[in-house]
Amino acid sequence: MLLLAVLAAGPGHGYAVGAELRRKSEGHLAVVEGSLYPALHRLETAGLVESSTQKVDGRSRRVYQLTADGKTALKEELDQWSQFKMCVDRVVNEIP
Amino acid sequence: MEPVQDVRGQGCERDSMTDDDKIRGYVRDVRSELQLPRSEKRRVAEELANHLDDSADRHMRSGHTRKEAVDVAIAELGDPSDVASEFNDETSRGSHVKGIPKWLPLALPTFQLLLGGILLAWSLIGDLAGSTRGNRTIQGQYLLLVIAAAILSYGVFSSVRHAEKDSSWRWVAWFCSVLAILPGLLPFIG
Q1: Quick check: B8 pLDDT over 60?
Q2: According to the CATH classification, is domain A2-93 in 1.10.1200.10?
Q3: ipTM, interface predicted TM-score of the complex
């Protein structure tokens, strides 16, 4: 969900996706770097992201972006997350 | 998304051969353990090399020398065997076959479906026109061919879709495709 959420802001190559996740979470969330690329490939295999080779900063990069299925999947994941968060909040808020 | 600033060669001396060799060595180690098609291996190697360069640049911006930065970047990415095994696990789950090769198992049953449909239609039209082309037995065989080919086409189509998440379904797709040879022989039996 987090990778999809980062890519929802715009296309990016693997390192930029990881860096953006770290920046947005102020360093609290960081994908284990060795797992980042397998995860992106998994999302691509599932049709949730697509990639193309582009020149970025003079280097040939694999740039990922969300597909229509990816946007739908992200919306579903966000709905599930909201429900889960709401349930936890209800329990925690009842602590005296 | 913020572009990653390229600071290679800035600020401190860069022992390029040694550092680049380290990156190349790491990428070579990962690549040697990958069980992926050659094009995918090349792609992974390129991504990892770029990642290590970017990561080393970031560490240099926080004050490390190039040598230290490369060492930290490699350490952060993790053991080459672990990285390769994550890619290999992912491959065993979903098939990487794309484009025309992905749908190749569908070729034979679809061809038979079309052929059976054309033959059946031709035979029925022959019946209506009062010609002798129409023959109930042959029409029955054509109909059987169409039904069998339709079922197998659907089987192959479903298997190919399932193979996107579990590559073992590719075998089922090819099995259904090979089965399509049998109804094709029906008109010639008896």
Answers
A1: no
A2: no
A3: 0.78
